[in-house]
Amino acid sequence: MALRRLAAFGGLCWAFVLSTHGQCALEEPRAAKASKLLERAQSPKPKDSLDDRMAAVQEALELHPEDAEAWMMMAEFQFRSLRRGRLSWEDLLESLGAVEELCPEGMPEAMYMRAAYHYSQEAHVQALDGFQRYLAEDENLTRASRRKDARGVLEDLAFLVDYHRHQDLPPPLPIPHVSQRVDEYLPMLAPDGTMLFYTRIEAFKAKGDVTTTRRERFTVSHLDPASGVYDGGTTMEHPFNARANYGGASLSVDNKTMVIAALNPVHDNPNNIDLFQVTYEFDYRDASGKAVYMWSELAPLGPGVNSPLGWEAQPSISADGQTLFFAGARAESTPDRNGNITMDLFLSRKAADGSWSPAE
Residue 335 belongs to what H/E stretch? Predict the structure, then answer.
């Protein structure tokens, strides 16, 4: 991450030219002594150290405390000294504050240094804004090397601003009733919000067994419209949960077609996970004449989607119901550097006859 690249800022060409910012010059002529001190700082003798040059600028500022150009020269020297680890940000910030007060928006390099300060403090919003404003300045009034460095961190800063956009919001909390003392995961909210499907872990001990086993139970919680609260959840009945592992589902916009991942053992792969489709269909009318719907039997999506030696799960149906996206680890997956199969994203399109095309 580029946040640790602060040392690069300030290690650039930094020769200061007083005439660059003539719009912020003193109202009265600079005293001869002050001019000589600044000339010495700008064009030092071989024996003059950086501290000597800053001392000369400081002496000039004592003669003209409202000299914005002298403050800017001091800031440039301090910025270089900061890079060498011989100065704190506080000293530089004092100089930048004076420049900004005496010459608002008149010295782009002060804008750059202020952005670099925010960058070092991980104040991403302020840093991004500062570097963007610096790059918006006339190229003739800014430094090519600094423009290059500023452009080099914009992408990272934009990401970090977006990443931390909601950091001050309240933290997420467990959903009442749904979240219990066992694991719940792989949530899938029905498009109309009335049902929340998820996988819940169940400890199961068959008759005669000594130990318990861990089973995934596909579960649904219903929303109480009056309170806006979901109930504690009910294990889905037939045709769901006939096997040990279920989870990761997607529901069509009409709440009637679901694609779900479930254990589907085969001879060479007892832990094979495949994708199945199930439909919510009309079954009969009860004594009061109310229509009763039931879920159809689970139907595998076919060899175009499922692979006996692979893993297909975490489906997502497009809004129009014509495209299925899913995660898969299978022969077509991208291998890692060691040749091992990785988990990739695949898509399949629904054909006219309702079948799913070979995944790609």
Answer: none
